[in-house]
Amino acid sequence: MPAVNSMGLKVVSFVRSDDFWRGIVSVVTFLILWEIGSRSHAWFGFSVPWVSHVPPPSAVLTEMFKLIQEPSFWMSAFLSTLRVFEGFFAAMLIGIPLGLAMAVSRTFYGITFPVFEVLRPIPPLAWVPASIIFWPTQELSIAFVTFLGAFFTIVINVLGGAQAIDVRYFQAARSMGSSTWDIFRRIILPGTVPSIVVGATVGVGITWAVVVAAEMISGGGSGGSGGGLGFFIWNSYVGGSYTQIVAGMISIGIAGYLSSAVLRKVGQWMTPWLSES
Amino acid sequence: MSVQPAPSRGFPPAAAQSRTGGVQINDVVKIYGTSDTGVLAVDHCTFDVQPGKITVVVGPSGCGKTTLLNAIAGFHSISSGSIYLDDELLCGPSRLKAQPGPDRIVVFQNGALFPWKTNIENVTFGPVMQGQLSRAEAYEKARDMMADAGLRDIEHNYPGEISSGVRRRVEIVRALMNDPKILLLDEPYRALDSLTKSVMHEALLEIFYKTHVSIFFITHDLEEAIFLGHRVVIMTTRPCRPKKILDIDIPHPRDYSVLTTRRFREFMDETSAAVHEEAIKAFAAGEKER
Amino acid sequence: MTETSPASLLTTHVNRGVASDVSHGVSATTIALHRFMLWVKSPRPYLMLIGFAGFIGFWYLSVEVWKLPRFSEMPGPTQVFREWFSRDPTYGTSIFTPEYYMHIWVSTRRITIAFSLATVIGVPLGLFLGWSERFKQYVFPVFELLRPVPPLAWVPLAIVMFKGSETPVIFLTFLASFYATALNTMLGVQSIDVSYIRAANCLGASRWQVFRHVIVPGSMPFIFTGLQISVGVAWFSLVAGEMVSGQYGLGYLINTSYTMVRYPTIIIGMITLGIVGYITSAGVRLVGDYLMQWRTRELALGGDR
After folding, report:
1. What is the pTM of this model?
2. Does C149 touch chain B (CB under 8 A)?
3. Stretch A127-147: mean pLDDT, rounded?
4. Alpha-carbon gap, residue B226 to B248, rounded angstroms
5. Quick check: is C106 in a domain?
6. Which of A212, A271, B84, C286 is the 20 to 30 Å CA partner of C169?
7. Has residue B246 got a pLDDT over 80?
């Protein structure tokens, strides 16, 4: 199984490298400083500013072990992830065709791009109240705002990618007698995929940020057993459980990181020609 | 247009230049990667670059000639062998990588004039950075050298505003400001059209006749090589080794009328079979262009 | 070719040609004016008008004329614009009320503080991360560890950590902005063509000189793209922070307008946010264009020849 072997070799050589150990050193140092800072009041009698108010990593870790065993926590995580992917896929579904249409037709671009550019600087969260007024359910209003978050990034990236396709590919195709549809399917589409991937990876991060924010602002959502991780954090704050706040933050961080990593892997799988050189 | 050139204050007159800048390449081997799984790029190369002369290395793309240039310049290390500049060791068993320096200045394939500095700021970069000249002195010297090279009017433009051919010439002046022992040219005219190229060739030769700086020139263009060089080294495809070394006895100073002489055609005949053979090998091996 | 031979190439001075005719003694503003004239003559301004007309038209028709089901609850464009420009607004906020400007000022002030801090810390950090492999190995893992946590998730912790109501909001904004700036700066350094560094080494520059004369100017384009993204991200986080905690500011205005059922003010707030956000972004871009004259000119001439 040569593929697994070479993967294994890479992991092993990475773990042995200086790179890895230096990283470990810095992370461990960071955790130690955090621990000391958090407990500074109890240990030294004086509080380090800011950090002493933060719960120490040891307490957070214990909290996380507790949380992992609670089904309501996983329910929240699942709800948030669901919202992220709903909004994200909606953004892809509408954003990619729109971006491609803008890249292909100068007229369409001329009409839609200015409106797009005017709406873009309005932060997605500013849409929350309007969204709540408009959509009948809370779920839908959160989904809409989430959609907006990723939508703008995806469109911009698709546009940029399509415009960057070397004009010679078009010329080569035309000289070989391709129809417009063929050109679209075989040149524009694959040529834009790398930018779509980049847009997606960045977009998913934004989507997470929006979901968490929307959950915190709109106070949870329709579910009974929890309104998602954002609501979880807000609730922990209101309830005075600071370790839970940090535990929640870490969970969101991990979830966000995993989503980006998954998307990047999918992207690499879809663009084998890029990873060759 | 009849022009009486003023005595140039820019380039030092040829007679005053000492003949330095000879490079001896001894049994150099370069392997990328580890010794058992790596790629052999340079295979026991030995030849000399004569001081005060133009030595041209010709070979198919990807054969390793740029690796040699980079080793001389100090950008890459070598795996074994040694390289000397005059009597000084550049790299060898005790030190596998040379230190880059102003005695061996490279002119790059795609040009490396700093786009964020004006042309004259580029030209004065070397002496000013090394602290050899004050800013005012450097500017004066630069102005003279640029005027000498016909580049006076573009002093305060940015490289992005002039054509690539002119950019190459500014880059060469930038190098010469530092009195280098040898100029290393890495396929500098590859990206230019053939009309501009022929103008560049003549400009390079004019500068050479004024300064007699040693030149180590890499190309894949055989005609360019024979036209410019005192000595032409034909390399095999990767891993590269000198396949054939020719001393071109066409007298200098040369101009483009040389191309139609019989002696030139004889040299082309002598060498093109060898070059073609290597090119076919490279093609069969699927060499990627670097 | 001897010294006395006529028409020596070297003495035939290079004709600057079009390039310098345009750039030498012709300022960037003249170039901009020229491009503007070209734009006005193209179909683009008219298509733009069609787009806006379509958008506002749809909004108007769906809310005020046809009164479509969900749309009828929203404030329509006439309502919003009348409110925005009235001297005595029904809901208390228009361009004639001082509160409006106070909210704008408060938000802008927070953005300025957070963004400046983020730039001052983020750019040098990004430069070092890109330039020194060792530094990157030590610092980047911790950097990446904290990055996936979304800005708003920091709000409760920030409230706990910092005193007062201003600091948490500014901290939030700073954090998001900082990450965007540092990352893009690092990418900028990594994107510099190695030939420039090699050329500088050949020419005898020390490590520090290479950093100052090659790395820093060479990463500027990326740095400024990063700064534009950073401003956008800053607004994103600021609004989020203002909506959840903090007093005054455009985010706060939007949120309270919702809770106090002043719907047109919501839209006014959103539009204002869009305008101010655009101005700040354009401001960053203009500063970049000014600092990178070499690039502006190159792009104006249509790039490489």
Report:
1. 0.80
2. no
3. 84
4. 7
5. yes
6. C286
7. yes
Q: Are residues C42 and C94 in the same domain?
A: no
Chain B: touching chains (3 or more CB pairs < 8 Å): C
Select the more confidently predicted residue: A149 or B13: A149
Residue with tokens 């996983």: A74
Where does a domain end: A18, A36, A54? A54
- What pLDDT is recorded for position A79? 84
Q: Which residue range is the domain that position A28 belongs to? A: 1-54
Instruction: Give me the residues of C, 87-126, that contact B with CB < 8 A.
Output: none
Residue C160 in contact with partner chain A when CB distance is under 8 A = yes
Tell me the residue range of the domain where C249 lies: 79-300
Instruction: Give the pLDDT score at A133.
Output: 83
pLDDT digits (tens, 9 = 90+) for C235-249: 988 988 888 776 888
pLDDT over 70 percentage in chain C: 88
Interface of C with A in 259-288 (CB under 8 A): 263, 266-267, 269-271, 273-275, 277-278, 281
| Residues 221-260 in B contacting C (C-alpha not used; CB under 8 Å) | 253, 255
Answer yes or no: do C59 and C126 share one domain: no
Nearest CA-CA partner of B68 in B287, B238, B222: B238
- Give the residue from C38, C57, C74 where a domain finishes: C74
Nearest to A217 among C48, C52, C243 (CB): C243
- Residue A161 shares a structural domain with residue A115: yes
* Average pLDDT value for residue range B194-210: 87
For B62-108, the DSSP string reads TSSHHHHHHHHHTSSB-SEEEEEETTEEEEBTTBSBPPPBTTEEEE-
What gap in Å lies between CA A124 and CA A120, rounded to an integer? 9
Chains that touch A (3 or more CB pairs under 8 A): C
Question: If you count DSSP H runs as helices and E runs as strands, how many of each does chain B have, helices first?
Answer: 8, 10
Domains of chain B from N-terminus onward: 20-103+183-244 (3.40.50.300), 111-179 (no CATH)
Give the gap in angstroms from C-alpha B224 to the nearest C-alpha of chain C: 18
In terms of phi and psi (left: phi > 0; alpha: psi -120 to 50; beta: otherwise), the region of A47 is: beta
Read off the pLDDT of residues C151-166 as tens digits, 9 standing for 90 and up: 888 888 888 888 788 8
